[in-house]
Specification:
Blueprint: E1 3-8, E2 34-37, E3 40-47, H1 50-57, E4 71-73, E5 77-85, E6 97-104, E7 110-119, E8 130-139, E9 147-157, E10 163-173
Parallel strand pairs: 4-10
Antiparallel strand pairs: 1-8, 2-3, 3-5, 5-8, 6-7, 6-9, 9-10
Length: 174
Amino acid sequence: MKWCLTLLVALLPLAAQSAWIDQTGKPIPDNESMRSAGDFGVQIVLTADEGQFRQTWDSSKTPPKLSTTNTVRLGGSVSALLIFHGCAPNVGGVCDVASEFILEDPDGSKTPAGGGPVWSGKPMQQRLLQLGQASMTVGFDESEPIGDYKITANIKDNVSGRALSVVVRLKVMK
């Protein structure tokens, strides 16, 4: 049986690198897993070890070498994490960004998979990346169908009203 658990993990503001540009400073176009609206942008990534991912993100190395995946074996799990930039602060100087996760099975059926605050703190410096507080972990036991799954995250900056939807694909194998 599939289990979904939304983990809301608070962490300190963290910066990785400038947003949506490559190492040479050239803009990176949006794709299904990385979208932007003005200066607000979100990317969804999968990792087999959320704790290690967050610890690496928090390291002093800039940019950190992050471990991501797009596959999982039956009996395993993956976590979907959100990296963002450009949230708008309210009059008190605090951002209010929220998420909702949806899991789509190989047969096309969709299951709400939780959500929560992506960020509810002071914004980072302009164009610096932030690892979101919300995440979704999904596990697959031996009774689950193998095949191609999709995880969608709908993200809204409740201060600016900007909303983005990002998708990451996951292959579940024996």
